[in-house]
Amino acid sequence: MKNSNRTYYSEPIGGPRAKEQEMSDGLVSAASALIGDPALFGRVGDDGTVYVWTRHGEKPVGSYPGKSKEDALAYFVRKFEQLASEIALTAARVRSGAVVPSDADQAVARLREQVATVNAVGDLAALAMAVEQIPPLIDEQRAAYATKKALAAQERAAQRVATREAKEKLVAEAEEVAAKDNWKISGDRLKELLDQWKSLPRIEKAADEALWKRFSAARNGFDRRRRTHFAKLASANDAVAQAKEAIVAEAEKLATSRDWVNTAKRYAALMNDWKNSGRGSKKSDDALWARFRAAQEQFFNAKKADLDKRDSSNATNLAAKQALLVELEALLPITSANFAEQKRKFRDLLQKWERVGNVPRDQRDALDLRLGAVAGEIRTFEDEEKRKSDPNAKARANDVVRQLSEAIANYEATALKAEAAGDTKKALAARESAAARRVWLEEAQRSLATFS
Q: I need a labelling partner for 349 at 20 to 30 A (CA). Which of 177, 181, 312, 395 fits?
């Protein structure tokens, strides 16, 4: 029985608490040693009642029905050992500083009560003494715990100050960032600042709420300004899109036009309208611009194809008109004898000229100038012929000859009278006037001679 019990008493309790027990200063081993031989601290009566011996005498602790006396005694010894182990573990935890003094005081109070009421077999007096060895350990740890607590309080205070400064810095930056209009960069930075705020611990409620109110106000103000900006931008973009849609619609209608000159001018005007309409959203602008360019390219490609075709025919037309000019210029000079025939040939050649199509633009002025010279000669000759056959013009020419003749006769008569009177000056003036009119008379007579 003795060997069996001792083998039982030496078994470890197991688990983490057993490790703490082994790390103690020997209280567990001392408590276990107090147990010693169960026969020294208890016995089992013939009726199965188990007794423990105390300083006040024998005391029944219970029974274990259906078991042998050795098993019954071992059962109540184990209860003693469990309480002794708990006492030793509590002492070890107090000494290591793993439990705060207030909790240790409560643990000692519970242990005292357990020792006073436990139904177990062992040296209960030694167990009570082991409990009373713990309070001095608590007192030793109390000062260290107070110091540790004070240091922790200081650290927390310093941490609160650092946290407050960090939050104030975050708020100041948030207010600065929120005042800017760089929506993408500012928005991203405010999100980063919010994440940093969330990662910081709370400080005093009033200060924390005040700082958060400023931080939140900065973010909300930025969000309102950004929404207002993009709402205005969206409205402006809509207006730009509507204006450009109208431009594109007209450009698409003009794409099939064959009025090359006027349509090209209109496309230039539409391009200016596009530039003056402002910038819209990139997606809308790109889509509308693609449509505008497609319509424009359709028109100008057709225009180029037509001009290429015209260039080919213009070269042929140029050769034809140059050949006609040779025939036209061969009509000159015009005389009275050939005027009627040359005029008829001119009309025939002019009709052929007009049936020939366009020529290269840079050749038109030179061709027109040569044609105009021939036409001018014919027109001048025709005007002169008409004048010569005009009776009114002939009558006016006769009247001029008559008037000049009469004037010459009058000046000569005046000169004779003046000479007879000895007025040589007057006579000289009269003869000079007569001489001048003789020149005029000769010219008038030649003009009169041209009339048929």
A: 312
Helices (H), 255-281: 260-276
- Cα–Cα distance measured from residue 121 to residue 407, given in angstroms and rounded to the nearest whole number: 184
Helices 69-96 and 134-178, axial angle in degrees (round to 10): 50
What are the angstrom distances between the C-alpha of 319 and each of 10, 330, 357, 359? 134, 17, 11, 9
Token pair belonging to 390: 């005009």
Tell me the three-class secondary structure of 417-429, residue by residue: HHHHCCCHHHHHH
CB atoms within 10 A of CB 44: 22
Whether 177 and 189 have beta carbons less than 8 Å apart is answered as: yes
The DSSP letter of residue 360 is -
Yes or no: say if 79 and 118 are a contact pair by the CB < 8 Å rule: yes
pTM for the whole structure: 0.39
- Give the Cα separation of 96 and 27 in Å (integer): 14
- pLDDT at position 145, please? 80
Candidates 291, 280, 268; CA nearest to 242 is: 280
The helix/strand/coil state of 177 is helix
Contact partners, residue 177, CB within 8 Å, separation at least 6: 186, 189, 190, 193, 218, 222
Encoded tokens for 254: 């003009």
Are the beta carbons of 88 and 12 closer than 8 angstroms? no
Q: What is the pLDDT of residues 343-402, one digit of tens each?
A: 898 899 889 888 888 888 888 899 889 889 888 988 888 887 777 766 777 777 788 878
